Structure to design on (220 residues):
C-alpha cells in the first residue's frame, strides 16, 4: 500500500512525503531542532570520530602508520586491533611511536609501563611495571583462529613542545596455551617530548599472521 514519510522537528513543524510504492504503513522521522550533518553508511567522519588509516596483515613483518597525526585537528587517536594472530605461539604484539612525518623513523628511548594483569578463570593477578625500549601490548598469541586477539588503544602524541607521548591499551582474550582468559589494561609513556607522527606494530617474534588495525582521529 502507498504510505507517507513524515519529517517532524518535534516542535509541530513537519513535512509529509508521499510514496506511491509500498511502505507497509506510514513512517515518521523526527529531527532535532539543531544544525547537524547526517552521516551516510560509508562516511568517514561520524560525529567527530574520523577514520584516518587502516591496514590488514598477511604474514606481515610489521604494520606501519606514518604521518597521520595532526594535533591542531585531533585531540587524541583511537586505534582498534581486530582478530590479530601471530605466526608462532607465545608471542605478543609490540608497538613503538614514530617521528619525522611521511619519512618516519622509530622514536627510541625509555618507554615506561604500568598496568594490571588479571586471569579470569583462576585466582591470579598482579601489577605490571617497568622500563623498556618498546611497548608490549601483552596477551600471548596463538596460531589457531580461536586465539585471535582484539585490542582498543587510546594514543595521545606529543607535539614537540607540550607534554610527552602516551598510550593506553585494553584487551582480553585466551592465552596461547589455552589455560587462562586474561584481562590486561596497560599504560605507556615515553620520556621524550619529540613530536610523534605515527606508530609501528610488530610481533615480539615472527610475523603478524593476520588481523586488521584501524586508526581514528578524535576531533577537537
Amino acid at each position: 500500500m502507498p504510505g507517507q514519510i513524515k519529517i517532524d522537528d518535534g516542535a509541530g513543524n513537519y513535512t509529509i512525503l508521499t510514496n506511491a510504492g509500498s511502505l507497509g504503513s506510514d513512517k515518521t522521522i523526527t529531527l532535532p531542532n539543531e544544525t547537524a550533518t547526517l552521516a551516510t553508511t560509508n562516511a568517514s567522519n561520524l560525529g567527530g570520530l574520523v577514520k584516518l588509516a587502516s591496514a590488514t596483515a598477511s604474514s606481515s613483518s610489521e604494520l606501519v602508520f606514518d604521518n597521520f597525526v595532526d594535533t591542531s585537528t585531533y585531540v587524541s587517536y583511537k586505534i582498534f586491533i581486530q582478530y590479530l594472530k601471530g605466526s608462532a605461539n607465545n608471542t605478543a604484539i609490540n608497538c613503538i611511536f614514530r617521528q619525522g612525518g611521511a619519512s618516519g623513523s622509530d622514536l627510541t628511548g625509555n618507554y615506561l609501563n604500568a598496568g594490571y594483569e588479571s586471569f579470569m578463570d583462576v585466582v591470579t593477578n598482579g601489577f605490571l611495571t617497568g622500563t623498556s625500549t618498546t611497548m608490549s601490548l601483552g596477551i600471548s598469541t596463538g596460531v589457531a583462529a580461536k586465539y585471535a586477539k582484539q585490542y582498543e588503544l587510546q594514543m595521545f602524541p606529543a607535539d614537540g613542545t607540550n607534554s610527552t607521548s602516551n598510550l593506553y591499551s585494553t584487551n582480553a582474550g585466551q592465552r596461547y596455551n589455552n589455560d587462562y582468559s586474561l584481562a590486561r589494561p596497560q599504560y605507556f609513556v615515553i620520556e621524550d617530548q619529540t613530536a610523534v607522527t605515527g606508530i609501528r606494530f610488530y610481533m615480539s617474534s615472527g610475523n603478524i599472521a593476520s588481523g586488521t588495525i584501524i586508526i581514528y582521529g578524535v576531533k577537537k
